[in-house]
Amino acid sequence: MADERLLLDNIYKAVTDCDDVACAQAAEEAIKNQVAASKIIETAVKAIDQVGEDFGNHKIFIPELMLAGMGLEKVMGLAQKQLLESGEVQIDRAVILLGSVAGDVHTIGKDLVITMWRAKGFQVHDLGVDVSRARFVSAAQELNADIVGLSSLMTTTLGEMREVIELFKVKGLRDRYKIIVGGGVCTQQWADEIGADGYAEDAARAVKLVESLIG
Amino acid sequence: MSRSRMVDYWTRAERGQILEEKEFDLKIFWKNLKRITREYGITYDDQKLVPQEEDFDLLDRIFAAGRELLLETGVFHLNTGRIIKFEPWEVEETLRLIPDTVILGTGDDRIEVKYRGLKSEVVPPVKGRVLGPQSAEIIEKVFESFAKEPMIDHFHFQGIIDKVYGVNILPNSPYEMMGEIMRTSCAKNVLKRLGRGGAYDGASAPVSVQGMMVGFDRGWGKTSSDGGHCYLMPPMKIDYNQQCRVFFYHLRDIKFWTTAAVFIGAMDGPPEMAAVSMVAQAIAEQLLFKPTLQQFAASLAEYSSATCRESIWAGFHAAAAFIKNTRCAYVRAQPGGIITAGLGEEHFWEVGATALASTVLNCVVSAGTGRQSSALDCAAGISAAFAGEVAHAAVGLDKALANDLVKRFLAKYEEKAKAKVLHKMGRNFQECYDLDKVVPNAWILNELDKVKKQMKEMGFEVKGTSPVPAS
After folding, report:
1. Is the pTM value of this prediction over 0.90?
2. Among A192, B180, B292, B365, which one is least packed by beta carbons within 10 Å?
3. Rounded to an integer, what distance in angstroms lies between the CA atom of residue A176 and that of residue A136?
């Protein structure tokens, strides 16, 4: 049986190298060699913290962060499956949806926030861009969301956020979800005006916001 | 579409290699960009913001790297999910046929822009840009503040009116079309009233194609002497919306612009990679759009600033590389008109830095809107007029001296940008203008004077034609 330390180091390196393919391979190898899923997860989380630090120090950039995030998802997915099969405790992760509102096709900020949320272990569903009001509502119900995130980078689409919240109210679903907003033209004042549960100015603050809402 | 193979290139989006968007972004574009930038030895020097003669080899390498990036990567079509690829000879042919003269506007406001390489001998064109949300009750006065400034020779009267009949203007709604009619007719009325009816207006606000088209009306609206925009979505992506715009522009012989835009720190990486990416995009835009005006725009992803050190380096190096390796007459190096600070001292330093660098590199000079173009009522003509004044003072300036001055101007606002508070500085239009006479008030003129005095102490004298303050 391969050395456990080496197998975990391979996972750590694959994540910090931002190599999503190597992440999956390293995680599969570790599971095949009966490394405990909890240790795999612990190693992956330490690695993604390092990735976050490298990103903050401008050693890597968003594409690498996204690749690391993709790698982390693969590692976590395999480890979770192992936990289920082995009967160990399953980590219950909050479910977050995020999409750019109808008419808005910007992705960069949204993708960065998604990557950082996933890096923190949240289960994040990317609804994409130009998401209709109805889709936000239906997705929240289908995916049993805890938090619904709305992104807008254009002044012309900002108003759509109010409409999304209004639709949740009309459907009698407003109290079931936390609805948060963000994006280049969004402000705390706007969030308060439309009755959002939170606003984050940037991706780092978006992580803190979600952590505070989940509790 | 005259003298272009554009339609042939477009049809490749219906037949090219199929790929998922994320695969294109992360496995093709990003990996190619990183490798090619390294292979060409392109590095970012944070002390050399304005490229000089000794840097011309670097400019050639940036251009060659951008060209190779395009040839290896192609352009991704968002509707068909396929890649458009090009042959080297197609790139050479297109670049060879870029017109070296551009004419904008008509009559007394007609301007002729000629290719002049990187040697600064004449004042470049000066563009005034109104961007971001504008209150319906003030937008006409904002437009007037620009149209009244003789320094400004062409315009982008954008500015978003947010509501029509109390309804939010959303993209693809009839209200967007109504909003465009309101905005365009307001801009045209202002120009005519001030005797500048022939001035070029390149404004392009609507998200939808129908919203854009409704503003082009030979009777009351924009004509073929005006412009609109189209983009490649970053990184290196096109869609039917952009193609429809371009098709309409060429049908009507409209003088449209495109922008090679990057977000430093995001999909385009650090400044050196961002410069290569911009060149690749610009060449792709020439192939796929055949625009009249070519623009470059670098902004930090983390803090939307086009006037920070990294943005200035990337934008001006990419633009200079393009000028040096083509005969493109109209090139703008930084996001025209988008200044980080609101109207006030810091705003003028930002305008000074970018206008000076633009002038010595024969790039179009542009200013007009503060607060990152995202706050209400933050555009004013005095911003673009000052850019023009700086251009007059900077013509023929030695590039090494220009570089030194740009760094000294940058030092006046850089710390606030790093602290991410620069956008909170300054004031809005209503706080800077006499709203009856539509002239700058004493406060904003005093802010401008403070900057000019300090510039003069640095050895750079900007002789003003600032308007008389309200009495």
Report:
1. no
2. A192
3. 13
Residue among B170, B269, B304 minimizing CB distance to A184: B304
> Looking at chain B, which residue has its C-alpha nearest residue A58?
B265
How far apart are the C-alpha atoms of A26 and A21, rounded to whole Å? 9
Chain centre to alpha carbon of residue B412: 23
Q: What is the pLDDT of residues B155-195, one digit of tens each?
A: 999 888 878 888 888 888 999 999 999 999 999 999 999 99
Q: Pick the closest to residue B152 from B374, B467, B469, B371 (CA basis).
A: B467
Is B153 in a helix, a strand, or coil? coil
Whether A64 and A52 have beta carbons less than 8 Å apart is answered as no
Query: Which of B21, B167, B207 is most worth mutating to test chain A (most A CB atoms within 10 A of its CB)?
Result: B207
Q: Which of B383, B304, B360, B311 is nearest to B124 (CA)?
A: B360
Pairing mode, if any, of strands B163-164 and B229-231? unpaired
What's the half-sphere exposure (Cβ side, CA atoms, 13 Å) at B227? 26
**Spatial separation of the C-alpha atoms in residues B253 and B267, rounded to whole Å:** 34
Three-state DSSP class for A109?
Answer: helix
**Of B117, B67, B65, residue with least CA distance to B272:** B65
Q: Residue B160 and residue A156: Cβ atoms within 8 Å?
A: yes
Compute the distance between CA of residue B415 and CA of residue B418 in angstroms, rounded to an integer.
5
Q: What is the 8-class DSSP label of residue B124?
A: P
